[in-house]
Structures are given as structure tokens and as C-alpha cells.
Amino acid sequence: MAAIRLGDVAPNFDAQSTEGDINFHEWLGDSWGVLFSHPADYTPVCTTELGTVAKYKAEFDKRNVKVIALSVDGIESHNGWINDINETQQTTVNFPIIADEDRKVSVLYDMIHPNADSQLTVRSVFVIAPDKTVKLMITYPASTGRNFDELLRVIDSLQLTAYHKVATPANWNNGDDCVVVPAVETVDIPALFPKGFKEVKPYLRLTPQPNLN
What is the rounded distance in angstroms from the CA atom of residue 36 to the CA atom of residue 68? Predict the structure, then answer.
């Protein structure tokens, strides 16, 4: 199977989850989505990650983002693990976890990297736009927990740049100046970006973030 690349339509699938059976594309609806995998249930780093995502759910909701996790264990195992997550992370898991015992979704999304582990998934992250295209892929080793502040930062950038002719520079955070994309002629900037702009070089033009009041 060919690897998934940016801009591809995210493969659809039917699966069991802790919130019932889902069809992935139907479940996404008109929302953005984050699909992220975990090596296995009852593992320490994953426990902290799922607890963190539960605590961040309001931030994802604010951005019209649905989150869904995946592990290669079954529903009964997931439900027991959720009790541990809620207890140890002082939160309530409030999003579905896919049971991928047959590794169907893991293979579909190339989440198993045999040279790392032949059975368990790596820590894959896919951000998917409402048109079901893949906008971001990040792969972490099993030993490294993810930074969900960074994931929110990237989602802010993806949503901004999807609707405005800007890109976000290094270490950009929501509210910082943006880069006007090279396809926009300098003479056209004032009409598109009435907040003004600064020309550092002809190819490097900065403007205040356009989607903020």
C-alpha cells in the first residue's frame, strides 16, 4: 500500500470505538479531525497523553476539531484503561478510542513501523481538514510523548492559512505577525491586508494576523 501524503484524502474506515461503531468520514462530518495512535493500552506515556487530550478538549472544540485515538487493543481493555486514565490524570476521557485489534486501521494509515516494533503502532498524528484531506502528519517514537500545545499551534496555522493568503513563520503563535505568500504581488497587499505590512525583503513581507480584530 502506498504511503499517505499531504493533500491525500484520508482513508475512510469502519471501526469499533469506546463511543460505539463509527464510520470515520461520517464521524468527522464538517469538522477538522485529529487521529492519533498509541502503542498499547496500560502504557505510561500514553496514559499521560490521553489525559492531556481530555483536558484540552475545550480548546479542540473551540477550533471545530474532533479528536479520536487508536490502540491495537480491544474495547474491554480500552474501557478498563480509561478508568485508570481518569483516576491518575484527574480528568474524564471525553473522546473515542478506536479498538484496532486486527490492525486494519493501523495498516491503512501506515502506523506500524517494523524496524521500530513489528506489532505496536508508533505515535502517529494526522490532522484532517473538513474536505477529508490530510493537512499534517507527525510521527513520534513510542518513547516520546507528544506536545499537544504544538498540535494546537499547528492547527491554528492550518486554519489561518487555509482561508488567508499568508504563511506562518518560525515559532509563530496565534496573534503573531504572518508572512504574505509570495504569490501576492506587493502592490496588491494593501487591498488584501488593510492592517498594513512591512517589507523586509521583496520576498519577505510581514502583516498582522488577518483573522483577528
Answer: 7
